[in-house]
Amino acid sequence: MIAAVQRSGVFAGRVRRNISLCREHFRLTLIVPDFPHAEPGQFVQVECHEEARDVDRPRVFEWAPGSTPGIAAEFSQQWPVLRRPFSIAGLRQAGDGVELDLIGRTVGPGTRFLAMRQAGDAVSIIGPLGRAFTIDPDSSVHILVAGGVGIPPLLWLGQTIQQRGWRVIGIAGARSADLLPLQLMSEPDRDGEPVACSADPAWRGLPVVVTTDDGSRGLRGTTADALRRVLGRIGDDAPRAAVYTCGPEAMMHAVSDVCATFGVPCRAALERVMGCGMGTCQSCVVALKDDSARGWHYELCCTQGPVFDAARIIW
Questions:
Q1: What is the DSSP letter of 79?
Q2: Average pLDDT for residues 2-6, to the nearest whole number?
Q3: I want to staple 272 with a disulfide (CB 3.0 to 4.6 A). Which of 96, 155, 202, 301 is the partner?
């Protein structure tokens, strides 16, 4: 069951299903007997190796006399020691526990391990972690701008906002059609007009703009190009819009610049390499503007983020 009081912990989940979304992306759905209340923008730290593996067994490396020791190749073949952070793409009550959706892109040993998990496999997670998106109830329209594998928290956010009866527009971008992690039920508009083309339950019925760098699907261009068109089309409502974004940092920087031009608030969910996800290792710092004499300070992406006011981020 979903707990009413928020707390974080270590939870043993099982894979309910694992489906391919496109050439490199997958959606992993876990079933967890009990999981705390969580909100869009929060994340979990996922263990990306089998629990039964003997992690303490020493290994011996030998080198010929006079040679230079080098063990990079040996270590490169090992399982990932640290957990990997994944934004929660969906959370719902099921008859036998809580279903939790994660979306990943296969780029290394950790994500490769998760992409190969099958129904019934055990997966350990820590969460929920981080601060969620703040949803402005006074905004006239909520615009979600996702780039590549940055789409997970925005899928859940869009579903949450729709359930409150508020107006939402989605923008999803990728380099090419075969790298788009959003499943579609019809072709998106090539001129960037928002249309209900998403097959994903979280964005079903939502007006969506799809962009690809090469023009293989939807609008040829970037998500920032699409956002500029959407804000221009909504006219007088633009100053009362709110933008939420997640994706590659350069993309979010461009989205933030568009929002600044239109005077629209923007909240960005950042990605950082996180050793722990709980503020202990201090590895996921983000530079933010402030009113001090120096003009900026660091905050931790894991505990003080991952969602930040985009206007404060030093890109």
A1: P
A2: 46
A3: 301
